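INFO  loader      accepted 1 record
INFO  loader      residues=229
INFO  predictor   begin
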Amino acid sequence: MNYVWDLLMRAREQELDVNSFRFVPAVSYSPYMELSLTELNTSELEQVVEINPYYRFYSIFRDLFPPDAEEYLELRESLFDIMIHFLAETDLYQGMNRREYHIRFVQRDIENGIFGPKVSESFAQLNRDEQDAIAEGLLRLYETGEAVHLLKETMRRVFHRSIIYTNCEEKDELLIYIGQEETQLSRIKADLILDLFLPARFTIELYWTRHFGILEADPTMKIDAIALY
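INFO  predictor   done
INFO  writer      dumping C-alpha cells
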C-alpha cells in the first residue's frame, strides 16, 4: 500500500468512512513512497495518515509548508487534509470508464430517493459490491428492458446460490429459490431486488433454504428437505 488512492480503496472494501481519515504531512518520510507508514506491509488502517506530499504533488504543495513558516499552521494543516482528500478521490475517478460513471449516477439517484424512500433506506444497508450489482442491473434494464433476465442475474450476484424458475404455462409466475437462511437483512435485500426488477404482471413464490421437489433432480428430492409448491 503506497498510494493514497490505495488506502481509500481498502477503506471502502472494509466499509469504513473515508471522511474519518485525517491526512497530515509526514515529518520523516521516504522520497520513494507516498504514504509514510510505520509498517510497510500493514493491513490496519489508522485514522491519522502521514503523507509525503512531494512524491506526486510537489507543484501543489511546494509552497504550503516551507521550513521556516510557523504562522497559520493549523489552517495550513486543515487545507492539506482537504486537498489530499480531494486528490485521492480524483485518483479513484481517473481509473473509471464512462459506464462506471453511469453506474455511480444510478447509485446517487437511489440514495437521493428518486426510487422512493423505502428503496433508498434498503439500498443503504447493502455492501459496496451489492450496491454495484443492483445499480449496474438497473442501468442495463434502462438499456435493454429485459426485466426477468436482469432480475435473475442480479439476484444471483447478491444471493450466490439463488435459482429462479419461470412458469408461464398457466400464469406468469416466478419461483425463486434463495439458497440461504431468511434473516431481516436477507429479506430486505430480496424485497429490494423484487421492487426494482419484478415486472408487474408476475407473481412470485419465495423459497429460502428448502427447494421444491423436481422429479429426476435428486438434490431437490431429499426427505424432510422438500418445500411444497
